[in-house]
Amino acid sequence: MNHFHADLPEPLRHAVDARLKTAAAEKWGTRLWAADASLWTNGDEAKWVGWLAAGGGKQVDFAQLKAIAAKARGHKDVVLLGMGGSSLGPEVLAEIIGAAPGYPTVHALDSTDPGQISTVASKIDPSEALFLVASKSGSTMEPELLRAYFWELAGKDGDRFVAVTDPGSKLEKLAREHGYHAIFLGDPAIGGRYSVLSVFGMVPAAMMGINVEAFFAATQPLVEACKGDTANPGLILGAIMGEAAVSGRDKLTIQTSPGLEPIGAWLEQLIAESTGKHGKGIVPVDVEPDAPAADYGSDRLFALLTLDGEDVSRLTQQADALVAAGQPMVRITLASKDLIGQEFFRWEVATAFAGAVIGIDPFDQPDVEDAKIATRKLIDKYEESGALAPETPFHQDAAMAFSAPGDHMFAATNPVEILRDHFASAEPGAYVGFLVYLERNAEHEAAVARMRQAVVEAKGVATVAGFGPRFLHSTGQAYKGGPKSGVFLEITRTPNPDVPVPGRKASFGTVQLAQARGDLDVLAARGQRTLRIHLNTGDLNTLETLVARSLQN
């Protein structure tokens, strides 16, 4: 199995040891596999543990996966159209393991950003590519809009489309009507963020040429180990995560060696959407720029995942310095990238147990729907009138406009002072979030990383970042339902050029703006501190300069 080691400061170590003794006496491992809802809130949790069987390969038909692999072989590209759990797991597999020789590259498209859509479209030959539409509900807005766009682009050739959805969904019906090459049905007892080892992860895995049977065989030692009441690797990690959170260490900071970096985005959704609710939970912090050990507060738990064969000397030195500074550190080492399935399962089990420690249902997402409702209202009005509902920024100039829903009033009228006022509310224990409704590309990611670095250095608080609307189906739950300690800066712009949606008045750019506005309104309504900057003629580099100036003493 993958190697695991934890260095914990004494107070946390004592709490974890006590929790593990309680868990052994109360048979937590046995109760998990028995779907005993009393382990959590005694609600409907028993309906959502189908992912346990999926970990053993019992939710997939290996013969069907071999058939779809044969269909994919020889094609250059597969475009996966999905959101959240339907896209993040496959993205990890595509970026960490990758396509086998002779098999297509999988492009996971989980955005309504026109630039993102155009970039993916430009990388493929639409007359040759295969298209995988993935949606558990079959009615999620983003995959449906993307499906309509690529259905037209691909010449409405049903034989090059594949659907992955739950039984009886709108997508299943449409796929049959349109003559899709194949339809794979999921298990309704598996939530999206726990679905990577079901057909939602394994169909794209097969299409990129991964030997799925061998993948599950490599995963099984960890699955079997997670069935016990003692020495259970998932339970041990879950106890650490849960006890850290209830003691105030609710920022799980994920660090990886280069070959494993993509798993952070999957962990973000699993942990944030599962634990962040009712004002409680764990805020995952992914790809945050490094800082000196002394700069981190007492609200952190660190997790370092490394791959054998990679140079991890810098990461090891940093981890040792953090431990020496009294920070809790979990270290996991993979002997091979093909063992990533073990980490999928370990973290699923750990997240379920962390929910039991925190005292919440780790399988629901009560706050995700609110942003969807707010977005739908804006889009429906656009479809009726041809315009989004008007809004009045409290300050604007040629470069950018500033808006702030909610109770937080900004007296300053200078952009630097507005930002300084906003970041001033990030006290110890808070976190600053950059919510970016732009194309997710290397240039934008680098600019966001530099702004996060400036915040960490100046404020000493955790920072998170997400590209919208992708993060709405991931960390968005924790931002709205979790601890009320967020300070959010949302960044939008009017796309040019835009991309039309077939059969709709609203373009992809309009939908993205509606999603951003709906998201910020709900964040403000939930008591989080929010500021939106709409880029007119300015760009991220302009904003980066303003952020840096606002953080100077």
Task: List strands and helices in order, with pairings.
Layout: E1 3-7, H1 10-25, H2 28-33, H3 50-54, H4 62-72, E2 77-81, H5 85-96, E3 105-109, H6 114-123, E4 130-135, H7 141-153, E5 161-165, H8 170-177, E6 182-185, H9 199-207, H10 212-225, H11 233-246, E7 251-256, H12 263-275, E8 283-286, E9 300-307, H13 313-324, E10 329-334, H14 340-358, H15 368-385, E11 395-396, E12 400-403, H16 415-424, E13 431-436, H17 442-459, E14 462-467, H18 476-481, E15 486-493, H19 508-525, E16 529-535, H20 540-550
Parallel strand pairs: 2-3, 2-4, 4-5, 5-6, 7-8, 7-9, 9-10, 13-14, 13-15, 15-16
Antiparallel strand pairs: 1-10, 11-12, 12-16
User: What overall form do the CA principal axes indicate?
Assistant: globular
Number of distinct beta strands: 16
Strand order of the largest sheet: 11-12-16-15-13-14
Cα-based radius of gyration, to the nearest Å: 23 Å
Please supply descriptive tags for the structure shown above:
single chain, alpha/beta, five-stranded mixed sheet, 16 strands
What does this 3D model show about the protein?
- With 553 residues, the protein is an alpha/beta fold.
- 44% of the residues lie in helices and 16% in strands.
- The protein contains 20 helices and 16 strands.
- The protein has helices at residues 10-25, 28-33, 50-54, 62-72, 85-96, 114-123, 141-153, 170-177, 199-207, 212-225, 233-246, 263-275, 313-324, 340-358, 368-385, 415-424, 442-459, 476-481, 508-525, 540-550, and strands at residues 3-7, 77-81, 105-109, 130-135, 161-165, 182-185, 251-256, 283-286, 300-307, 329-334, 395-396, 400-403, 431-436, 462-467, 486-493, 529-535.
- The strands form 3 sheets. It has a 6-stranded mixed sheet with strand order 11-12-16-15-13-14, with helices on both faces. The chain has a 5-stranded mixed sheet with strand order 1-10-9-7-8, sandwiched between helices. Strands 3-2-4-5-6 form a 5-stranded parallel sheet, sandwiched between helices.
- Helix 5 (85-96) links the parallel strand 2 and strand 3.
- Helix 4 (62-72) runs parallel beside helix 9, helix 15 crosses helix 19 (508-525) and helix 16 (415-424) crosses helix 20 (540-550).
- The radius of gyration is 23 Å and the shape is globular.
- The mean pLDDT is 96.
